[in-house]
Structure formats: structure tokens, C-alpha cells
Write a sequence for this structure.
């Protein structure tokens, strides 16, 4: 074992993790954080955050996350930029393994977020991060006056498409059905936009490219297998997110998609194990809601620890 039993181990370093770290450090719990493969979390991928209170002129995502880390470290949060590989919550203290080393804690706060789902169509891997993206906010500006497509039928797809009209000359929404999960207002806003065309009953079969990058996609009609080619130099996949819970190996209860379920306040199905942020959130997925839940989890952990003594 690496060291003595900690009060709190926090897994993940997005807004939820750093806020949990700040609160538990200020409560003198001497928390230990494993920041994971993406130190700072999803906001490291974005340039401007304009909806986090306290920044009247907006703030760069990475800048905000560096500030969150500094603020929590000032009160004693210990951060290791390493991944948790597995956990054992079957007995107390709870155990987590990092690079083969075992760490123990009375309580654990899980803040490992959720990642975007890709299509996995032929030719996708080579164009990831070049012509094909999962984030219009990050990459939209690279496609000024170009034709792009958005894949998906939910609110995210409508939002991404509408956002992309700021840059692109044309945005085509591709959806495999004619029923859209998007809310009526979001769908209608996209449908009414002169730069947006909505194409139902189409799915991406494969991507086409040349030495300069993405050139288009081969679309298939799922009803009859009919194919057609569409030209585009950018594509945005907006078909959902997957919570990062695989390393927990089913030791806390989740819903069918793997999102962690809260049993009492922010406590999971395991006593002393809490969860906060996008890893439990199927609805809001915002920095401020993740941070708010990180605060709740730290307070819940602190009170739970107090009750144990
Ligand atoms: C491009 C983009 C732009 C966005 N813009 C905005 C915006 O303007 N405003 C807004 O409010 N929201 C925005 N969001 C959403 C916001 O980023 C998320 O809601 C928020 O980051 C969720 O915070 P979180 O702490 O739950 O998880 P995340 O930020 O996803 O952090 C998850 C953390 O878990 C860690 N981790 C994963 N697995 C392990 C492991 N095995 N061991 C240890 N650590 C692990 C990762 O390293 C990461 O640090 C944006 C998202 C994206 C992708």
C-alpha cells in the first residue's frame, strides 16, 4: 500500500473534481486527487466559457481549469496527474489502484465525467480531429465558408448545427430516422435557419477524403440501402455521450448507459462512495452544475465521515 488511509480520494479533475477538492481541503480533510488522463477535464478542449458566473467577459476553458486547480491546491488539495485503473469498494477502507499501487480512503468522490460517442464509420479514425469533430464549440471556426454536416437528432445536434451557421456556408443535419429527440423549439430553430438543411433517413456509411482532408461522406438510406454521396470538409458527430465508469467494474449502481445513480443525496449505492458531475448527469452537463454537485459531494462526504466517528 502506498501510504496511510486518507479521508477522501477524488477521482477526476474537471469542475466537479476541483470543487470537491476545494471544499474538502477547506474542511481540513487533506484530500488526494487522481486527475486522470485529461487533467482539467472537458473544458481543456474549449476556448471560451461565457456562462460560468464570475467572468463578465468570459474565460478560456484551460485558464479557468488552471485557476480551479490553483485555488484548491492553495488549501491543500494533493493532485497526482495519474489514472485510476481499478477500485475495490467491497470493504472499508475503500481501495483504488493507480499504476499498480494501492491507495486507501474512508470516502471516495467519483468525478470522471462522460466522453463523446463516435460513429465508427469507415475512414473515421484517420479524420478524427482533422475534418471530423465532436465539438462545434472547439472546431467550428476552422470551417469558415465551408460546407459541414452534423450527425444526430437530439438537442445537441440542433445546437451544434445552429452554432455552426456562424462560420459554415451550409450545414446539413443527417439523421437516421424521421423522428427527432430534439425539443420542438430547438428543432424548429434549426429547421427555419436558411443555412441549415435537415436530411432524415440518412446514415453515414463511410467518409471520403483526399490529401487535404475530409471531402465528404457516403450516406445510406436505412429503409432500402440506397446510397448517395455528400460533399463536406467538416463533420460534427452529435449522437451522445458515454459516462466514464468502466474502471469501476460495476461496483457502484449505474443506469443502463453507465451513468452512476445517487442513492441518498450524492452518495452512490456504496456507503462512503460519492459521485458528482457529468458522470451522473444525463440532463444538464454544464461546468456550473458539475461544480455545484462537486460541492454537494464534498459536503456529503464530510458529514458522512463525521457520522462514522
Ligand atoms: C468542447 C466543450 C465545450 C464546453 N463548453 C462549455 C461551456 O462553455 N460552459 C459549460 O458550462 N460547459 C461546457 N462544456 C461542458 C463541461 O465541460 C462539462 O459539463 C464539465 O466539464 C463536466 O465536468 P466534470 O467535472 O463532471 O467532468 P470532466 O470535465 O469531463 O472531467 C472528467 C475528469 O475525469 C478524469 N478521469 C477520467 N477517467 C479517469 C480515471 N480512470 N482516473 C482518474 N481520472 C479520470 C479526466 O482526466 C477528467 O479530469 C463543454 C464541453 C466540451 C466538450
Amino acid at each position: 500500500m502506498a501510504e496511510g488511509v486518507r479521508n477522501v480520494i477524488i477521482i477526476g479533475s474537471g469542475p466537479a473534481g476541483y470543487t470537491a477538492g476545494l471544499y474538502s481541503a477547506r474542511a481540513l480533510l487533506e484530500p488526494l486527487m487522481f486527475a486522470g488522463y485529461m487533467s482539467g477535464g472537458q473544458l481543456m478542449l474549449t476556448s471560451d466559457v461565457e456562462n460560468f458566473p464570475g467572468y463578465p467577459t468570459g474565460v478560456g476553458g484551460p485558464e479557468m481549469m488552471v485557476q480551479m486547480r490553483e485555488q484548491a491546491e492553495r488549501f491543500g488539495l494533493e493532485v497526482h496527474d495519474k489514472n485510476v485503473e481499478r477500485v475495490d469498494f467491497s470493504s472499508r477502507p475503500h481501495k483504488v489502484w493507480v499504476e499498480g499501487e494501492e491507495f486507501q480512503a474512508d470516502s471516495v468522490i467519483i468525478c470522471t465525467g462522460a466522453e463523446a460517442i463516435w460513429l465508427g464509420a469507415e475512414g473515421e479514425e484517420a479524420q478524427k480531429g482533422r475534418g471530423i469533430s465532436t465539438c462545434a464549440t472547439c472546431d467550428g471556426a476552422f470551417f469558415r465558408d465551408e460546407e459541414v454536416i452534423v450527425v444526430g437528432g437530439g438537442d445537441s445536434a440542433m445546437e451544434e448545427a445552429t452554432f455552426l451557421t456562424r462560420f459554415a456556408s451550409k450545414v446539413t443535419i443527417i439523421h437516421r430516422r424521421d423522428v427527432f429527440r430534439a425539443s420542438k423549439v430547438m428543432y424548429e430553430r434549426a429547421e427555419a435557419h436558411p443555412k441549415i438543411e435537415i436530411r432524415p433517413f440518412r446514415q453515414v456509411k463511410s467518409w471520403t477524403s483526399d490529401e487535404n482532408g475530409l471531402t465528404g461522406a457516403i450516406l445510406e438510406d436505412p429503409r432500402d440501402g440506397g446510397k448517395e454521396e455528400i460533399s463536406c470538409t467538416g463533420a460534427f458527430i452529435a449522437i451522445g455521450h458515454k459516462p466514464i465508469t468502466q474502471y469501476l467494474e460495476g461496483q457502484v449502481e449505474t443506469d443502463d448507459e453507465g451513468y452512476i445513480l445517487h442513492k441518498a443525496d450524492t452518495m452512490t449505492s456504496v456507503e462512503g462512495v460519492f459521485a458528482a458531475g457529468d458522470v451522473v448527469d444525463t440532463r444538464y452537463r454544464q461546468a456550473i452544475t458539475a461544480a455545484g454537485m462537486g460541492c454537494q459531494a464534498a459536503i456529503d462526504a464530510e458529514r458522512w465521515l463525521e457520522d462514522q466517528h
Summary: The CA atoms of residues 8 and 261 lie 20 Å apart. The chain has a mean pLDDT of 94.
